What we know:
- By secondary structure, the chain is an alpha/beta fold.
- It is about 45% helix and about 20% strand.
- It is built from 13 helices and eleven strands.
- The chain has helices spanning about 25-30, 45-60, 80-90, 105-120, 135, 175-195, 195-210, 215-235, 250-260, 270-285, 290-305, 320-325, 355-360, and strands at about 1-5, 15-20, 40-45, 65-70, 100-105, 125-130, 145-150, 150-160, 165-170, 335-345, 345-355.
- The protein is globular and about 60 Å long.
- It starts with a strand and ends with a helix.
Amino acid sequence: xxxxxxxxxxxxxxxxxxxxxxxxxxxxxxxxxxxxxxxxxxxxxxxxxxxxxxxxxxxxxxxxxxxxxxxxxxxxxxxxxxxxxxxxxxxxxxxxxxxxxxxxxxxxxxxxxxxxxxxxxxxxxxxxxxxxxxxxxxxxxxxxxxxxxxxxxxxxxxxxxxxxxxxxxxxxxxxxxxxxxxxxxxxxxxxxxxxxxxxxxxxxxxxxxxxxxxxxxxxxxxxxxxxxxxxxxxxxxxxxxxxxxxxxxxxxxxxxxxxxxxxxxxxxxxxxxxxxxxxxxxxxxxxxxxxxxxxxxxxxxxxxxxxxxxxxxxxxxxxxxxxxxxxxxxxxxxxxxxxxxxxxxxxxxxxxxxxxxxxxxxx
Length: 363
């Protein structure tokens, strides 16, 4: 098991534990955090059948009180209606602020449950138990919680850090290959923005990671989390350097919104992978990075079975995409701001990017 500690100003330090069998031994990880030996598991209906009921029963067998609340799977649960429904069900549980909530699922469950925990009695502790590769290396770490709005993705949210993250690699054994590839996008992104050596390793080892080879998978997950945790420690509430973690995301969120947040049509990791390729393409157009870095990024993304061209994910109107980007959280005063790159491992925020240049990489 690999343990990564997340710290930062205003953050109660917590651990991210990466390894196999963590949910099977969950009581040993969770019990020390419980005051009342009571926990409510929030999951989706699919994960409830695969892991939720078994986890709850194993906790009960050890003398804990464990209830399971399942919500419909998919991005539609990450909405005002989904949040209202979950808050009502949590209130029906009569939890107090010394109880805990456990988010068991992918990024939708982690984001929704985290925001509900932030709002419940002005803040109740929660644990992240991500069950997708994407959630393990991205949304479960760093304290960002949110729901979507018709105007865009993750626009309603709060910073609320978990008490613990359990990234159990065993649950990835049953994860569909498409979701593994989606998670690989965020792993590649971590190397692109902050560790050229790690990115170089991924250029040859990505197939082993996608094949769930144990050592390669643990190294990839742990290193991606380490990169994110280090940036979060410097900037817990995204006032500066943490914005680098949004490499590719200004593009990605626009594609997702235009696709109606339909995961069947476009998964988040697929959008991020395309967004990263476009960010490097835009960087090269602006003279920030060389063509060799762009070529390496495009090869690595394509080799992981992820898109590098807009046409691969659908027929999108560049003007509608630009309008979406203008409403992105990172936009300021109507100006387009992007995380771009001066090379692999050298990302920076660039403000006031010319929309004409952005449109050219979207064409």
